[in-house]
Amino acid sequence: MSVNPHRGEVAVVLDGRRHVARLTLGALAALEAELGCDSLLGVIERFESGRFSSRDVIAVLVAGLRGGGWQGEAPDLMVVEVEGGPVGAARVAAELIARAFHGAA
Fold it and tell me: Which of 23, 25, 70, 101 gets the most CB atoms within 10 Å of its CB?
């Protein structure tokens, strides 16, 4: 399963299985609501400033995975192995946000 960075796609490996994630408009709206941000700019600022928590990373991953067709929920991510551990998960979340707003990285 290959990803297309020009569509904002990022690969996420969960329990050794590769998934495609991307922040569609619907996924971004869900993410904005989940994080309690008033705007998309608020989401971007939260990550660019480094003021994000592990819960924020999970919210971004869930939104991106669901934008890629995954049917899971946040509790599902809490029991799987994300490739790269917490640092890998944060890297993927940051890449998803960057690609959603800046195109291919």
Answer: 23
pLDDT in tens, 38-78: 888 888 888 888 778 899 999 999 999 999 999 999 999 99
What is the Cα–Cα distance from 82 to 35, expressed in whole angstroms?
21
Tokens coding 54: 């592990």
pTM, 2 dp: 0.88
